Amino acid sequence: MTCTNQVGVKNILITFRDCDTDAVYGPIAHLLATEDLPTWRLCPYNNDPLPHGYVKRQSTNPELEINVIRDLRIPLAMYQGCSDVAIQVEYYNGLVYSAVQGTATGDEKSDTHEVAMTISFREIDEMLPAGTLESTPNPVTPTFAVAA
Protein backbone atom coordinates (compact mmCIF):
# COMPACT_ATOMS: atom_id res chain seq x y z
CA MET A 1 0.00 0.00 0.00
CA THR A 2 1.27 3.49 -0.78
CA CYS A 3 0.52 6.85 0.75
CA THR A 4 -0.10 9.16 -2.18
CA ASN A 5 -0.05 12.31 -0.07
CA GLN A 6 3.10 11.52 1.90
CA VAL A 7 6.30 13.12 0.65
CA GLY A 8 9.65 11.55 1.34
CA VAL A 9 12.07 8.76 0.67
CA LYS A 10 11.17 5.30 1.96
CA ASN A 11 14.27 3.29 0.94
CA ILE A 12 17.70 3.96 -0.56
CA LEU A 13 19.80 1.01 -1.68
CA ILE A 14 23.31 1.67 -3.01
CA THR A 15 25.82 -0.80 -4.44
CA PHE A 16 29.43 0.17 -5.13
CA ARG A 17 31.89 -1.69 -7.37
CA ASP A 18 35.52 -0.62 -6.92
CA CYS A 19 36.94 0.41 -10.32
CA ASP A 20 40.44 -0.87 -9.44
CA THR A 21 39.76 -4.15 -7.63
CA ASP A 22 36.21 -5.08 -8.73
CA ALA A 23 35.29 -5.49 -5.04
CA VAL A 24 31.53 -5.11 -4.55
CA TYR A 25 30.03 -3.34 -1.54
CA GLY A 26 26.30 -3.77 -1.18
CA PRO A 27 23.53 -3.38 -1.83
CA ILE A 28 23.44 -1.46 1.44
CA ALA A 29 20.56 0.64 2.78
CA HIS A 30 21.35 4.31 3.31
CA LEU A 31 19.58 7.22 4.97
CA LEU A 32 19.33 10.80 3.79
CA ALA A 33 21.69 13.08 5.70
CA THR A 34 19.34 16.09 5.54
CA GLU A 35 15.66 16.80 4.93
CA ASP A 36 16.47 17.63 1.30
CA LEU A 37 15.10 15.05 -1.11
CA PRO A 38 17.28 13.66 -3.91
CA THR A 39 17.12 15.66 -7.12
CA TRP A 40 16.99 13.96 -10.52
CA ARG A 41 17.65 14.96 -14.12
CA LEU A 42 16.42 12.22 -16.45
CA CYS A 43 16.53 13.95 -19.84
CA PRO A 44 19.71 12.97 -21.77
CA TYR A 45 20.16 16.44 -23.30
CA ASN A 46 19.99 20.15 -22.50
CA ASN A 47 18.27 22.69 -24.70
CA ASP A 48 20.21 25.91 -25.27
CA PRO A 49 17.99 28.80 -26.40
CA LEU A 50 18.50 30.29 -29.86
CA PRO A 51 16.81 33.33 -31.43
CA HIS A 52 13.18 33.17 -32.61
CA GLY A 53 12.13 30.39 -30.20
CA TYR A 54 14.49 27.70 -31.47
CA VAL A 55 16.67 25.53 -29.27
CA LYS A 56 19.89 23.63 -29.79
CA ARG A 57 20.16 20.21 -28.17
CA GLN A 58 23.35 19.29 -26.39
CA SER A 59 23.95 15.79 -25.08
CA THR A 60 24.35 15.38 -21.34
CA ASN A 61 24.03 12.59 -18.81
CA PRO A 62 21.06 11.89 -16.58
CA GLU A 63 22.10 12.82 -13.04
CA LEU A 64 21.20 12.35 -9.42
CA GLU A 65 22.17 14.63 -6.55
CA ILE A 66 21.82 13.03 -3.13
CA ASN A 67 23.22 13.61 0.34
CA VAL A 68 23.46 10.39 2.39
CA ILE A 69 24.85 9.29 5.71
CA ARG A 70 27.99 7.31 5.02
CA ASP A 71 28.09 3.61 5.89
CA LEU A 72 31.45 3.02 7.60
CA ARG A 73 31.76 -0.42 5.96
CA ILE A 74 32.33 1.35 2.65
CA PRO A 75 35.55 3.27 1.92
CA LEU A 76 34.91 6.99 1.47
CA ALA A 77 36.57 6.92 -1.96
CA MET A 78 33.73 4.69 -3.23
CA TYR A 79 31.31 7.58 -2.63
CA GLN A 80 33.61 10.07 -4.37
CA GLY A 81 34.14 8.60 -7.84
CA CYS A 82 36.37 5.53 -7.42
CA SER A 83 33.52 3.12 -8.10
CA ASP A 84 30.61 2.24 -10.32
CA VAL A 85 27.41 3.06 -8.46
CA ALA A 86 24.03 1.33 -8.70
CA ILE A 87 21.18 2.93 -6.78
CA GLN A 88 17.48 2.43 -6.15
CA VAL A 89 15.39 5.08 -4.41
CA GLU A 90 11.81 4.34 -3.39
CA TYR A 91 9.43 7.10 -2.32
CA TYR A 92 6.41 6.81 -0.01
CA ASN A 93 4.06 7.70 -2.88
CA GLY A 94 5.18 4.66 -4.90
CA LEU A 95 7.70 6.27 -7.25
CA VAL A 96 10.86 4.22 -7.72
CA TYR A 97 14.02 5.42 -9.47
CA SER A 98 16.83 3.01 -10.28
CA ALA A 99 20.09 3.29 -12.17
CA VAL A 100 23.26 1.28 -12.69
CA GLN A 101 26.83 1.95 -13.77
CA GLY A 102 26.93 5.52 -12.56
CA THR A 103 29.97 7.43 -11.42
CA ALA A 104 30.20 10.19 -8.84
CA THR A 105 31.38 13.45 -10.38
CA GLY A 106 32.60 16.73 -8.97
CA ASP A 107 34.98 17.45 -6.15
CA GLU A 108 32.65 17.31 -3.15
CA LYS A 109 34.44 16.73 0.12
CA SER A 110 33.00 14.88 3.10
CA ASP A 111 33.10 15.31 6.86
CA THR A 112 33.23 11.46 6.90
CA HIS A 113 29.72 11.32 8.40
CA GLU A 114 27.63 12.51 5.46
CA VAL A 115 28.46 12.47 1.77
CA ALA A 116 27.01 14.70 -0.93
CA MET A 117 27.06 12.85 -4.25
CA THR A 118 26.38 13.95 -7.79
CA ILE A 119 26.16 10.78 -9.86
CA SER A 120 26.06 10.64 -13.67
CA PHE A 121 24.40 7.68 -15.37
CA ARG A 122 23.77 6.62 -18.96
CA GLU A 123 20.13 6.02 -18.10
CA ILE A 124 17.86 6.33 -15.08
CA ASP A 125 14.69 4.23 -14.93
CA GLU A 126 11.52 5.67 -13.43
CA MET A 127 8.69 3.42 -12.23
CA LEU A 128 5.46 5.33 -11.66
CA PRO A 129 3.05 4.46 -8.85
CA ALA A 130 0.47 1.78 -9.60
CA GLY A 131 -2.59 3.12 -11.40
CA THR A 132 -0.98 6.37 -12.51
CA LEU A 133 -1.43 5.70 -16.20
CA GLU A 134 -4.85 4.02 -16.01
CA SER A 135 -7.51 5.70 -18.08
CA THR A 136 -10.50 7.41 -16.55
CA PRO A 137 -13.71 5.33 -16.29
CA ASN A 138 -15.65 7.77 -18.50
CA PRO A 139 -13.37 8.88 -21.34
CA VAL A 140 -14.26 12.08 -23.15
CA THR A 141 -15.17 11.55 -26.79
CA PRO A 142 -13.42 14.09 -29.01
CA THR A 143 -15.62 16.33 -31.15
CA PHE A 144 -14.57 17.58 -34.53
CA ALA A 145 -15.82 20.58 -36.45
CA VAL A 146 -17.63 19.56 -39.61
CA ALA A 147 -17.57 21.82 -42.67
CA ALA A 148 -21.07 22.89 -43.64
Description:
The structure is a single chain. The model has no long low-confidence stretch (mean pLDDT 86). The protein has one helix and ten strands. It is extended. Strands 1, 2, 3, 6, 7, 8, 9 and 10 form an eight-stranded antiparallel sheet that branches. It has one helix spanning 76-79, and strands spanning 9-18, 24-29, 39-41, 45-49, 55-59, 63-69, 83-91, 96-105, 114-120, 124-127. A hairpin with a 5-residue loop joins strand 1 (9-18) and strand 2. The protein has 148 residues and is mostly beta strands.
Q: What is the first-to-last residue Cα distance?
A: 54 Å
* H/E element order: EEEEEEHEEEE
Structural class: mainly beta
What does the overall shape look like? extended
| Sheet with the most strands, sense and barrel status | 8 strands, antiparallel
Strand-helix topology:
Layout: E1 9-18, E2 24-29, E3 39-41, E4 45-49, E5 55-59, E6 63-69, H1 76-79, E7 83-91, E8 96-105, E9 114-120, E10 124-127
Antiparallel strand pairs: 1-2, 1-7, 3-6, 4-5, 6-9, 7-8, 8-9, 8-10
Search tags:
148 residues; mainly beta; eight-stranded antiparallel β-sheet; 1 helix; 3% helix
